């Protein structure tokens, strides 16, 4: 079966700066592929090369079996795209704008636009210029999904959306996959990728630092923990914490109660069992932002590998 997307040694340079280094990706039809990494990792540059918005410096890419530079309008009609920086302005109303896009993208099933707008909570009667950032993003999502394209390329698609709409968007992605559509989803929101994607590639500084099924990558192993204790001696708690593996950046503060902040890198079970021995007044476990996660999980390993090679 021909891959929906394939790149081989794809590279993009801007003067002396290399934004993407020899990228090799294969995305199978009917799958959801997550492309994640911190800002500046090369995600948007990669998507723009696949859509022939910019041209690669070297390497090759095929999209739906065609070279993007040669596919022209016929190939673009088979793709739904939400750019990372969506700019929509003007006095035109949402419904009229989508009707214009429908003439360009190809056939749209009757009722499809209204159904998507209802799901996302979008008022199509309003002028585009009066819409908030979140509602403009909804309009962008409707235009990408409405003609059921073979490939959806979504660059930071949930930017500006509230949590309920984000949940509906993830349902739309799952339905697209069930319909046999392929979804290439770029994001810096770790939980979004974990819920939606089958495969994932982690980009850092224009390079793939990890790739594979979502479950196989250690994307969720780093967490921040904050806890407040009652009736615990700070010295006793500190001694217990020193014995735990994978615990770092530990801070203990005295006050009316002892407050702990720490980072867990790896298995959280030993810490949970330790906390269960004390009276905990408050507990929060959070993911760090993705940029920190990528740098901590993979940046240090790249540095260690470079040192070994050196």
Characterize the structure shown.
The chain has 310 residues and is α/β, with parallel strands linked by helices. It folds into 2 domains: 5-216, 3-Layer(aba) Sandwich (Rossmann fold), CATH 3.40.50.300; 222-286, Alpha-Beta Plaits (2-Layer Sandwich). The protein has helices at residues 43-50, 68-76, 94-105, 112-120, 133-145, 163-178, 190-196, 234-242, 269-275, 290-309; strands at 5-14, 17-27, 32-36, 58-63, 79-82, 151-155, 182-187, 199-204, 207-213, 222-230, 247-253, 258-265, 279-286. The strands form 3 sheets. A 6-stranded mixed beta sheet has the order 5-6-7-3-8-9, sandwiched between helices. A 4-stranded antiparallel beta sheet has the order 11-12-10-13. α4 (112-120) packs antiparallel against α5. The longest helix is centred in the C-terminal third of the chain and has 20 residues, at 290-309. The two termini are 41 Å apart.
Concise structural overview:
With 310 residues, the chain is an alpha/beta fold.
Name the features.
four-stranded antiparallel β-sheet, Alpha-Beta Plaits, 2 domains, 30% strand, disordered C terminus, Rossmann fold, six-stranded mixed β-sheet
- CATH H-level superfamily of the largest domain: P-loop containing nucleotide triphosphate hydrolases
What's the arrangement of strands in the largest beta sheet?
Answer: 5-6-7-3-8-9
- Which fold does the CATH topology of the largest domain refer to? Rossmann fold
Poorly predicted residue ranges: 300-310
Fraction of residues in β-strands: 25-35%
Indicate the radius of gyration in whole angstroms: 23 Å
Number of strands: 13
Number of helices: 10
> Mind summarizing the main beta sheet?
6 strands, mixed
Give the helix level as a range of percent: 25-40%
- What kind of oligomer do you see? single chain
Which class best fits the helix and strand makeup?
A: alpha/beta
- Rounded mean pLDDT is 88
Order of helices and strands: EEEHEHEHHHEHEHEEEHEEHEH
Number of domains: 2
Q: If classified by CATH, what would the architecture of the largest domain be? A: 3-Layer(aba) Sandwich
Q: How far apart, in Å, are the first and last alpha carbons? A: 41 Å
């Amino acid at each position: 079966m021909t891959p929906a997307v394939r790149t081989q040694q794809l590279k993009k340079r801007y003067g002396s700066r290399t934004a993407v280094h020899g990228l090799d990706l294969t995305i199978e039809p009917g799958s959801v592929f997550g492309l994640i990494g911190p800002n500046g990792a090369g995600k948007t540059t990669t998507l723009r090369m696949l859509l022939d918005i910019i041209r690669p410096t070297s390497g090759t890419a095929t999209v739906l079996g065609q070279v993007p530079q040669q596919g022209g309008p016929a190939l673009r009609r088979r793709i739904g795209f939400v750019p990372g920086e969506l700019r929509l302005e003007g006095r035109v109303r949402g419904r009229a704008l989508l009707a214009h896009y429908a003439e360009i993208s190809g056939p749209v099933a009757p009722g499809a636009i209204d159904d998507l707008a209802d799901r996302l909570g979008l008022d199509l009667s309003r002028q585009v210029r009066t819409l908030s950032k979140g509602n403009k993003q909804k309009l962008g999502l409707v235009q990408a999904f409405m003609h059921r394209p073979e490939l959806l390329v979504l660059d930071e698609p949930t930017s500006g959306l509230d949590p309920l709409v984000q949940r509906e968007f993830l349902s739309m992605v799952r339905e697209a996959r069930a319909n046999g559509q392929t979804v290439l989803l770029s994001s810096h929101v770790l939980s979004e990728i974990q819920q939606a994607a089958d495969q994932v590639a982690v980009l850092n500084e224009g390079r793939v630092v990890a790739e594979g099924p979502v479950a196989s990558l250690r994307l969720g192993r780093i967490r921040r923990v904050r806890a407040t204790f009652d009736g615990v001696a700070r010295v006793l708690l500190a001694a217990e914490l020193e014995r735990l593996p994978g615990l770092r950046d530990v801070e203990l503060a005295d006050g009316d109660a002892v407050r702990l902040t720490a980072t867990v890198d790896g298995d959280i079970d030993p810490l949970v069992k330790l906390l269960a021995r004390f009276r905990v007044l408050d507990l929060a476990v959070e993911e760090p932002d993705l940029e920190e996660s990528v740098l901590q999980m993979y940046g240090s390993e790249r540095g260690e590998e470079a040192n070994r090679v050196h």
